[in-house]
Structures are given as structure tokens and as C-alpha cells.
Amino acid sequence: MAHAQQHAKRRVRAKHTALYKDAWRAVASNGKRFAAIAVIVAVGVMMMGALSSISNDLRGGLDGFFDKTDMHDLSIVSTFGFDDDDIKALSDVDGVGSVAGQRSASAYTKINGKQSSATVTELNDQGLDQPYLTDGRLPKAAHEIAVTEQYLADSGKALGNTLTFTLDESTSVAQLISGASSADSSSADSSDASSESDSGTFATGDYTIVGTVIDPNDIVNPSGPMALISGAKTVYPLFVSSEAAAATDAPYTSALISVDGAANLNTYDGDYLTLVKRTQDSIEKIQSSREQARTDAIKDAVREPVESKLDEQKRTIEALPDGSPMKATAEQKIADAESQLESELDALPDANWIIHDRSALTSYEDVKTESEMISRLGKLFPILFLVIAILVSLTAVARMVEEDRQLIGTYKALGYTRGETMLKYLIYSSAAVLAGGVVGDLIGLAGLPFVFTKRMLHILYVIPTYPLIIDWRIGIGGILLFLVLITGSAMAVCAGSLRLQPAELLRPKAPKAGKTIVLQRIGFVWNHLSFLGKVTARNLFRYKSRALMVIIGVLGCTSLMTAGFGMASSAMTMMPRQFGEIATYDVMAVTKAADHDKAQKALDEDDAVESSVPIHLESATLSAGDAVGGNGDAGNSGSGNGGAAEDSKLTVQLMVIPDGESLDGYLDLHTTDGRTIVLDEGSEATAVVTANAAKTFGLDTGATVELADAMMDTAQVKVTGVAQYYTGNIVVMSEAAYRAAFDVNNDTDLALNADLIKVKGDDDTQIAFADDLAGQDEYLTVVSTAKQTRDFTKSFMIFFVMIGFIVVMAAILAVVVLYTLASTNISERERELATIKVLGFRKREVHGYVNKEMLLLACFGIAIGLPCGRGLLGFLLSQLDLPGMNIVPNVAWYCYAVAALLALLFTVLVELATNRSLDSIDMVGALKSPE
Predict the structure, then answer these.
(1) 25-80: pLDDT as tens digits
(2) Quick check: 536 and 528 in contact, CB under 8 A?
(3) CA 9 – CA 13 distance, rounded (Å)
(4) Which of 25, 81, 201, 810 could lock onto 557 through a cystine, CB 3.0 to 4.6 A?
(5) Compositionally biased, Low complexity: which spans (predicted)?
(6) Domain residue spans in the chain?
(7) Rounded to an integer, what distance in angstroms lies between the CA atom of residue 110 and that of residue 104?
(8) pTM to 2 decimals?
């Protein structure tokens, strides 16, 4: 009994050994098919891993940069700023790690003789929002300053040079406080009412440049496409030490807060957001009391010096004799002054806190949006390669099973089970998947992300370093996905043959019965075809599955290339369409409000100016209103997201058109389907928003949004139109609508500060005119649409890299599919091809006998793939949620032509490669073998 068991075990081991040897021999003898499956799997796994890794690296890079610069988790701004008591109260809140009061001010500085905008920020003692040092050192002394690389490049200065700036205190906290101290100026001189308003926020004079830094609050590359798309004016960040403050008791502009434990979490993780939100809720509990305390402190600061003056005057009046008319008059003036003081104090607005988390930072939201976009593409692209991999594996394994028909019959006759016989093909397909998957993971998880972050992301952002985050779950999961589906398809192919009996498998398979094809019934056509034409037509219908696979492979290749070239065409025509169809002005010039009249007069007298229209322009923040919704006019917005997160915010340019002025000839506001939008000049708070903003918030006409102006005043605004706009985001309002929204009654609050200008001459003349205006002191920012278009084209080289990548992927797809099918076709038809060679067909005729079929099928695939590529482009662009960019599909004719020609080229190259196999067919051996 024991001997029999041992003998049985040896037989089983011998059977398994033979199976394994046969399986590995199959890999060697079917190397081309093995390589085809491995390459397709490698590309699919690579795409899945690379795009997911790049998304993680992008987020990880920003998170690491924020950790290095101690970026705030929460920030608070207030209409009256903050004092030390506010900072102390915030530091006592549960969950708060550290709090820093920060002073900053808007300023103007000269860049090559041209006045430019800047922000001057004081380094705080807690190190929060610390600028990232790239060269030199941070300022320590009173007249030292750190600048960005952009400032040095634009100004031509270097470390050790000096710069000067002029503060713009018109919107500063100190100015707001001093404005409140004007009560009863006829009775008391209140010029010293508050020491906070005696001077500017920072000392004036020359500052020595001691360091080059990156501002952590704005990491967008100023020369990259994101900066050009936004269309916002350049504002240079400048950093000074606390020694540069003009007064040590000046109010803080903002309060920066770090949350306990937040630095240990990724800034985009749900745990981080929950932790920060919990701390924000705790801060909101003390908000009302601190706002009231700050309001009382400001009122006391205003009241005290005025009352001191009045008390002094009262003592003087008391010295006058009773009953004196002068005394009665003076007492009445004192009473009027006191009454006016109380009225002024009652009219003074209360302090108002606005609490922001990191989502208020444009860069933070940009990185979040783009990483999500890349991650979505990482799930979409591999699907195509997964389908192709299944088709290729079906073809390869089906041919192997057909070639091994008699061997399978032998296995079954020897007693091998169905599972044991199938094991050979499972090992073959599994080995191909694992080989391709490992290569794909190495390239996708490490190689491509490294190249992309080093070469591509630096075009978009100035983040100094990116981590290489390898998520093995994605890598292993991608391999397992391909493994399950491809081995499953191999099992399905094997199942049919394994159901047959050994005797049937050992006999040659009977050829399929011939059928009359449809074309044969059309005598006029069929009778005029040549012999080779008739053979080609019959073979197209004879091998239906293979024909379908060729069409699908070429279709996928053509679709990818059409989408890639179409994306480039859509992007590169975006600026010309923006400034040719919508923003038809030539120059936008922004001034100080006080200088606008002078600048406007000079424009009116300039012969180079064809016409101009004055407007009010300011930066604003758009967010979801109390009742986001609409009348369902989805055609206006083109929104596909159906809604927006409540916390979403978008920085926009608020453009207010004065009463009596028209935008005709300067800005063509129309919906995405071409209908003209007319500004509402009624008394209701209404506005026109851009299609990209509407997509962000899921808006339609009739929806309500919240608009916050530069002074942090907010208003609920009704959307009366969603306008087509390709680059940047604007909100357009009439003067009446603006006054209704923000309750503005004073003309000075709606001071004109910009002009839209049409200039005579060509692009070079317009650019020269804009440069001339930029050199004048009255102008803060001058933008030439012609120059923007040129710069945009240069900066969008990133698109050409993406297109090159797509074309390479398409080429791999086409070559692998076509080569696999061509080689399989030749191996199946060796006897037939040997016959026509024996009959005297020349090489070229034999080549045409086979290649004509593939060429015709490729043409079918191209014809279907071109419109499919247009559809794929529309789908991809709907997934590219780029902030401030509304890319509308625009596929030029040459995009279709190039995609079709390249697809044909790939087909011809494969045919040339397989011609060798046709030439090397062994006629004698092929004719001896069974068909």
C-alpha cells in the first residue's frame, strides 16, 4: 500500500513538472505574443500608477512646503485689526497651538522706472507664514528687506541693492481708525486722536535687499500659465523685520493661528480638515465678545482725546461770567459737539472678524483641484489599455490553444484534468502580466513622477522640492486588476477546447464552411473586383473577430491622438478667442483712484487712443450664496458638477460699469450658446459671472452668490447671466447694482480707477503704447492683450509635452495591437500563403494579399476614431477642472489630418515589419501541416 502511494505521488510530481516545463517553453516559443501582452499591461499599470503618484506628490509637495514655512492653519482679519488682548484671547482657545499678530500694508515701488504694486509684510515673532529663503538671509535690522526672484528678475537688482516703497494707507486698518476719529472736528482737533494713525505702518526710506524668498501664500509661478490665465496684476511681496514698524503699538492687520497636531497631518486629509474645523468652532465661541471689546476700545480711543479737548474748553467757558452771551453760545457749541461725537460713535461700524482656513489661499485650492483632476485621469486612461490588453490576450491565447489542439488532446488522453491542462495558459498569461506590471510600476511609481515633478510642475508652481510618494497599494492593485481580467479571459478561451473529447482534439479541426458575403450579392461591384480584391473582401468577413480588434485598436489610437492634438488646438486658440471674441479692448490700465481723472484726461488727448471707457476695478471673492440654485438654464453655465462645496471660494476681478457708460466694443458679454447678456441697471443687487465660476459653484441664471469686496464687505448678489469667458474670472455689475449690493451712497466709495482702451495700430504698436503707460507714475498696472497672447503661447509648452506623451501612448497601443494581430493572422494562414507563393505570386503580391486587409480595416478604424476623438476631447476637458481656465473644445482640421496620417503611418510600419515573416514562410513545411 505504501509503495503504491509513493508511486502515485511520483506520477503526480512528474505530471506537474512536465506541465511547468511546457508552460515556460510556451513563453519562449511565443515571445512576440508574450511581449505584446506585457507591453500593454506595462503601459496601463504605468498610467494608473504615474498619474496617482503625481497627484500624491503634488499634494505632498505643498504640504511639506507649508510645514517648512509654518503656514497658518487659520487666519483672521478684522475691520479694525487686532490688539495684544485679542492675540492673548486667541492663544487661550482650546486646540490653538500658537498665535501671531501680523502687520502688512499695500505699497507701490518702482520697477525699471514703472510704478508697480507690492505688499509689505512684517515677520512675526512666532515664525508663522515664514517666507522660504532661497538666497541670502531674512531681514533683521530696521531697513533690511527680502524680495522674491520675480522682483529681482523684473527690476534687474541683486542682493545688496536698495529699494524704496510708498505705502498706500487708504485701505489700511490705521486709516480706518483715524477716519473714525474725525467726529466734531469743528470743536476739537482730533489729529492726535489715535497714536495708531500718526504715521504709516512701516518706516519710509531706503531698504537694503538681504535675501531672496518664496512667499508661502502664493506659490504660483509668476511666469507660468496659471499666472497668465488669472489675468491679475503683478503684486510683489516684500518682507521686513519687526524693527521696520513705524509704531510698536500699531494694530495687527491679521491674526495667524496654528492648530495643535495639525502639522503631523497632510493638509488635504479629512483628519486635518476635521481638526482645523473643530478649532475654528472653538474660536467662533469668543468671536462676538472680542469683536465687541475691540469696538469699545476703538470708540474709547476716538472718544478720549475729543472729550479731553472738550473738557479743556469747558474749563475755559466756566471762567466766563454767568449770563454772558458768549458763555451761552460756547456752552451750546460744546453741547452740539458732544451730541455730534455720540452720533459719530453710534454710526461707527462694529468690528467684524472673518475667519479663513487654508482654502482661502488660491494656491491651496489650485493644487487641490489639479491633483484631483490628475487622479481622475489616472482612473480613466488605464481603462482603454485594460480593454486592449484583454483583446490582445484573447487573441494570443486563442491562437496558442488552436496551435496546441492536438497537445491538449494528448494531455486529456493521459489523464490530465481540465485545471491541470489550463494551468499552462494561466502561467503564460500571468507571467506576461507580472512582467509588464513590474516594469509599469517601476516607471509609473518612480520614473515618470520624478521627471514630471522636476520638469513639469516647476512650470506651474515655485515649490522648491517634491517628495517621491510611492503608494504600493496602487501599484499592486493595478497588477492584480490586469491579472484577474487577463487570466480570466485566458480561462474563457481555454474552456471551449477543454470541453471536447480527446479523440476530437487529436483530429485536425474541420475548416469552416464557406459563406456568401453581402458584397457577392451586389453583382455590379463584385464582378468588377480583381482576384485579390475578391479575396480581400472575403477575408474581411471571414475573420470577423480579428477585423473587429484591428478596428478597435486603430480607433483607440486615432481617438487618443485626435484628443491630444485637439487639446493643443483648444488651448492655443483660447487667448486669441478671448481677446478676439469677448475682451475686444487692447489695453487695460489701472490707476490710483486719486490719479484717475488726470490719467483719463491724458488718454482723451492722446492721438494713439481710438477710444476708452472708465470703470471701477477691484479684487473680490466669490463664494456660494445662501441659496445656490437657478432657473435651470444649464445651457448658460455649462456646469457639469451640479453644485459646489459650501466652503469654496474664488478670487475674481470685480468690474463695475458707471452709469451712462457702455461696454460695446470693449467687452462682449454673451452666453456659451451666443445669446447677448445685458447688464441690469435697476436697483436690485445683480451681477454677471463667468462660465468657469458658474461651473465651480454649479450656478445657473437666477442663482444667488456671496460677493466680498476688497474691504471685506459682503453682499448677496443674484446672477442674471453666465457669460462665456476663457481665461480668468470676472464679475461684472452696473453701478446701480453695485450700490444696491454694498449699500454705497457716496461717490468716493465708487471711485473710477481703470480704463479699457482701444489703441490704433498693430500688435507691436499696442504693446509699445502699454509699455509707455506703464512708465508713468499714475498707472499701477497696465495690461496689453497682444502681449498676454504672445506670453501665453510661450508659456504653454507644457501642453506640447502632454501631447507628445499622448502620441507615444497611442503609438504603443497601435503598434502592439496591429503587430499582434498581423503576426497571428500570418501564423494562422501559413498554408494558404504558402499555396499562393507556390502558385507564383511575387513578394509584393504576397505582401499586398495580407496587408491590404489590415490597411482597409485601419481606414475603418480611423474613420470611426476621428469623431470618437472629438468626443473623448470633450469628456477630458470636462474633467480638467483648471481654476480660471475654460477650455472649449476646438479641433482644427489639421488635427484630424495629422491624427489620421499618423495612424496610417503606424499601420504601414507594422506591415513593413511583418513582411519579413511573409518572406520567410517555409512553403514545404506549411503545405505538409494540417490547415
Answers:
(1) 777 777 788 888 888 888 888 888 888 888 888 888 888 889 999 999 999 988 78
(2) no
(3) 6
(4) 810
(5) 181-199
(6) 69-291+353-360, 609-759
(7) 19
(8) 0.74
